[in-house]
Amino acid sequence: MSTDDSSGRPTSADDSSGRSTSADDRPAGGPARDGEEPLVSVDGLEKYFWEKDSILDRLLGEEPVAVRAVDGVSLDVYEGETLGLVGESGCGKSTAGETLLRLQEPTGGRVEFEGRNVYEMDGTELTEFRREAQVVFQDPFSSLDPRMTVGQIVRQPFEIHDVGTPDERRERVRELLAHVGLSADQIDRYPHEFSGGQRQRIGIARALALEPEFIVLDEPTSALDVSVQAQVLNLLDDLQDEFDLTFLLISHDLSVIRHVCDRVAVMYLGEIVEVGPVEEIFDEPRHPYTRALLESVPRASVTERDRERETLSGDVPSPRNPPSGCRFRTRCPQVIPPEDLDVEQEQYRAIMNVRERIESRTIALEAVGEGGEYADEDGELAVDDVGAFVDDLKAQLLDTTLAPRHDERVEAALTELAAENWADAADRLRSAYESPCERVNPDLGEADHPVACHLYRDDADPGGRDEGFDFAG
Ligand code: SF4
C-alpha cells in the first residue's frame, strides 16, 4: 500500500499531479511477478446463490435459478503488496473477498494460501489459516458487538484461538490499541462511545490481534467522512510496513484505489476484466469498462469537465441472467459490429440499445407519444396511426440520427411493436446486428496487463482491434 503524500490523504482521481510518490516501489507486473510465488492464488473462483430452490418451489415444478455473484474469478496476491479489487456496487467483489477467505463456501474454483488449498483445509490447518487471513469490514457500526467493551472485542480472537494468559492478553490489547492510535484508557468503553473512524480503528486492532499475514479490507473507509478516510488509510499504510502485511483492498472508490494500491483488478458482473499496475490502469486503461469507470469520476478542473466522455449506457444486467458472450456488451461503447456491416460505432451502440430494450421488453408501448393517444376503444392500435406511433417511439428510443439503411431496419422492427410482436421485432434486429461480442466471452489471458476484451488479442497490439481473432463459436 502506498499513500500519495505524508498525510496519506487520498486526492481526486483526476488530479494529474497526484501520482503516488512510491510508484517505483511497486511490483512491475500484472498477474505474475518473475520467480515469485503468490501468497494468495485464486483460480476460477465461483460463488452462486440459488433462488427458487425450496422444497415448495420443487413441488411447484420451479427450476432453481443461479445468481452468479462470482463467476470464474482468477487473481494472485503477492506478499507485501496491496491489490485493489474495484467495480460498481453489486459486481460481486465483496462476495469474492469473503469466499476466498472461506467465510462463505465456494460453488467452484480453488484458492491457495501459501500453496495450500484453502477449501481442503480442516482441523489445525484451517485454524492456522483463520489466524493468518483476516478481514476488516466496511461498516464499523455493525461489525462491532455493542454489548462488548473495546477490550473484550480486541481480546476475543485470543480467546477463540486460546492465545496467551489473561494478563498477556490484556497487555497485548493495550499495545494493539496504541498501534491503531487509540488510548489504552479507552479499553473499558463501548463502541457507541466512539466516532466512526475510531470504531474502524478498533476493527483494525481486532484484525491485527493474531498477527495475520493477509487482510481483506472490504470498503474500509466508505462509511467514514472524507477527512477520517485519509487518516484510516494512512494508518493502514503504516501498519502494512510495520507488520509486513499483504492487503486485498475492495473498494468502489477510485481515488482510494489509485492512491493506496500497487496493482488493480477490475471486476464487472462477477468476472475480472482487467488487471494491471495501478499507474497503467489509471493512465492507460484498456478495457472499455475500466475506461468508462474512470470517466465517471467527477472532474475538478474546468477544462477537464468539458472534455468528451465515454460514458456508460444502460443498467447493470442482473447476475441471475447475465448477457451471453462478453457481459459488458449490453453497455459497451465499443461493442464490435458484425464484420460485414458498415455502421458508425455510435450508431451501432444506439441500435444495440434499442435491441436490448426490445429483447428485455422494457418499453411501455401504452405510453408512446403523449401516452394513450394511439389506442382505440379496444386498446388496439389503429392502422392509420402506425406511422406516427413508430416515429414517436423512435424519437423516444434514439437520440442519434441513423444512416438511412439502419433507420429503415429499426423502423421495421418498431413497426412490429405496433402489433406487439416483440419476438419478431427482436429477430429483425438480431439477424442484422448480432455482435461477435455476444457469441464469445473473451478470456482474461495471461499477459502482463491482461484485458478480457476482443479488442485486444495480446499486449503486442494494445490499442487495436484483434484482426486475427476467430469469433466463430
Ligand atoms: S468484448 Fe466487445 S463488448 Fe466486451 S468489452 Fe470488448 S468490445 Fe466491449
Explain the overall architecture.
The protein is α/β, with parallel strands linked by helices and 473 residues long. 33% of the residues lie in helices and 14% in strands. The chain has 15 helices and 10 strands. It has helices at residues 55-59, 93-100, 123-132, 150-160, 166-179, 196-208, 226-243, 254-260, 278-283, 288-295, 302-305, 345-359, 386-397, 404-418, 422-433; strands spanning 40-51, 65-77, 82-86, 108-113, 116-117, 133-136, 214-218, 246-251, 263-268, 271-277. The strands form 2 sheets. It has a 6-stranded mixed sheet, sandwiched between helices. Strands 2-1-4-5 form a 4-stranded antiparallel sheet. A hairpin with a 2-residue loop joins strand 4 and strand 5. Helix 5 crosses helix 6 and helix 12 runs antiparallel to helix 15. The longest helix is centred in the middle third of the chain and has 18 residues, at 226-243. The protein is elongated, with a radius of gyration of 26 Å. Residues 288, 326, 328-329, 332, 334-336, 437, 442, 453-455 line the site of iron/sulfur cluster (SF4).
